[in-house]
Amino acid sequence: MADDPIDGRTGAVSRRNVLAAGGAALAITIAGCMSDENPNEGSGNGGGGSGSGDIVITGSSTVYPVTVAMAEEYEQENDVSISVDSTGSGGGFENHFIPGNSDINGASRPISEEEQQAAEENDVNPIEFQIASDALTFAVNPEADWVDCLTFEEVAQIWGPEGAENWSDVRSNWPDEPFELYGPASTSGTFDWVTENVIGEAGAHRSDYEGTEDDNIIIQGIEGSQYAMGYFGYSYYLENEDAVKALAIDNGDGCIAPSLENASDGSYPMARPLFVYAAEESLQNEAVADFMRYYIENSSSELVSEIGYVPANEDLVEENLTKLEEATGGGSSEENASGENTSEGNASGGD
Amino acid sequence: MGESETQREWTKGAGSQIDWRGRAFEGICLGSTLFGILMVLVLLVYVTLDAFAITQPGTAPWLDWGFLTSAHSRFPEEAGIYPALIGSIMMVIVIALSAFPVGVGAAIYLEEYAPDNRLIDLIEINIGNLAGVPSVVYGLLGLALFIRTLRMPSGSVIVGGFTVGLLILPIVIISAQEAVAGVPDSQRRASYAMGATRWQTVRNVVLPASLPGIMTGTILALGRAIGETAPLLMIGAAATIFSAPSGPFDRFSAMPRQIFAWAGQPSDEFQYGVLAAGVVTLLAVMLSMNAAAILIRNRYQRQ
User: Measuring CA to CA, which residue among B104, B136, B148, B296 is closest to residue B216?
Assistant: First the structure.
């Protein structure tokens, strides 16, 4: 009878020791990181002056692939930790960038006035860099043989608030079948761009469509029905050229098909700029400024076109670099304190 | 036992119609049992085929040593899960160290100390309710409490661990309560009879006897925690991060968050190959945690 508790107790002691050791280990880890913590937090609010550190990037899912590619290349040469989150343009501004929790926010539309104001009230000063363009693509099922081209007005008629019910409502020789529409959700910058630039009024969009954050769902929806239509960034069309048919767009100059060439020479009417916004306060941190310099310099390279976007041209790169130098206040001269060799190389390469 | 045997004999002898119905019912129940296993098998076969590219002979397997040791890349062949794997493991450690003591403490209080009154009933009902709250709501709670109010760094391991820890806390409490309640009263009485105080009884009798059950329940809850995605989206865990966190206050990405990011990539190689490799890794980690839970249970139940 006395054996049982004693047995149980010795067992408990060894298990307790394991737990205690584990707890102590964590306590030490936490303590060790407490001191690391301050510069990290500072980078979000622009305080930190150290060369290496965390760079936090949030924002548009359209810009995300470009940013990830830049971060991947940059990390191979530099000792920083970059985290990239895909939150949507508006979600990134509202939840991360304006509260000061992220250094850089991608956006597939310009920052809105409300967002600009909210940021300034929080002492965050967003600086805009256009880093690429996208050929926004409207697509239908390959079996929809009656349609190859839409005018701007027809697009607005289909996607506007009082959108057309049937294909035949738009052109009488089209089938008398209802539209099945797939598009981005209202948190998306793509959605904002279409409502402002195609339909002509911010936020005015029909609500009886399938809105999703995941562009692959739009593709699947279009694949699934002959009478479906949807829109998304050109990179998703590039990967699904066999599955969906892209429509040419006519804005008075004839039907122009979406392509990188047509978007870069300005003939494709649905070309839209893609931005990243950096907080001026964060750019005082040399790590963020150096990454941003790298990002701008490479925004004209095939890194961008391989993803399916139109790279920035040389003028834009020059303009962005000037903007960056103004924002850092000639900060590149101060980098001798902690900047790595590569960061100096990049800085001089840009001049 | 003898009685049930005679009953079975009687059923057999009572004509084919009754026997047929009984058989049919048994078959349906067996089918229901197998359904769950079948679904798990289909899932495992499906993702394993994709992860090792078995159906595409020309392609190298997506899940290999390189996948486990490298970070995300825009080239699917080079993409890996290492930072997210380490992030997930660190998050689980934070969860275990935060949810385990609180959960076990609550369970011991409720079972050993709490008076039998309405307030305690209310608390117990609410713990049950909390177990059913959708995980995205916990994510919002984590965002509001840890990031906005307590100003902890957004998207950090510690915020992720605390948030998901809150999520599994009710499950830990309930399973620990069951384990504590399973300790026979006779053992407690024996302890009291030898002059032990209540604290000594809990420490020397109740806790050692219930620890295997508590550990099993906690590890199973951790298995659920490692797969949670929605709370991580809310607290701003990164979709992609290139270096593993080096401490609990670093920003991190977890395996389900990285898998979700791959699912949104435009190319098929990411959506099927790399994604499947990530799913297999996540399942392997989760299943080995569950296996550990079963081992612990079996080892201590033999005593």
Answer: B296
Residues of A in contact with B254 (CB under 8 A): none
Residue tagged 């040389």 (tokens): A314
3-state DSSP assignment of residue B207: helix
**3-state SS, residue A190:** helix
Domain boundaries, chain A: 43-133+273-350, 137-269
Task: State whether residue B48 is helix, strand or coil.
Answer: helix
Does B116 lie in the same domain as B30? no
Residue B119, domain extent? 82-301
- Residues of chain A in contact with residue B240, where contact means CB-CB under 8 angstroms, are 68, 71, 83-85
Number of domains present in the structure of chain B? 2
- How confident is the model over A22-69, as pLDDT tens digits? 555 545 544 444 434 333 333 333 333 333 468 999 998 889 999 999
B41 and B154 fall within a common domain: no
CATH code at A43-133+273-350: 3.40.190.10
Name the 3-class secondary structure at B254: coil
| Domain end position, chosen among B12, B28, B51 | B51
Q: Tell me, yes or no, whether B60 lies in a domain.
A: no
Optimal mutation site among B199, B203, B241, B253, interface A, most CBs of chain A within 10 A = B241
CB-nearest partner of B154 from A12, A69, A101: A101
pLDDT digits (tens, 9 = 90+) for A188-220: 888 888 998 888 887 788 888 988 878 889 999
Residue A248: Cβ within 10 Å count: 17
Asked if residue B24 has pLDDT above 80, the reply is yes
ipTM of this model? 0.75
pLDDT tens readout for residues B251-275: 999 999 999 999 888 888 888 889 9
Q: Please state the pTM of the whole predicted model.
A: 0.77
- Same-domain status, B149 and B279: yes
CATH class for domain A137-269? Answer: alpha beta
Nearest to A81 among B93, B148, B243 (CB): B243
Tokens 């948030």, residue located: B163
Is there a domain that residue B65 lies in?
no
Instruction: Examine residue B72 and state whether it is found in any structural domain, yes or no.
Output: no
Mean pLDDT by 10 residues, chain A (351 residues): 42 51 52 40 36 77 91 90 88 89 92 92 93 93 92 90 88 91 86 88 86 87 93 89 92 89 88 93 92 94 90 91 86 42 39 37
HSE, CB side, 13 Å, CA atoms: give it for residue A350.
Answer: 30
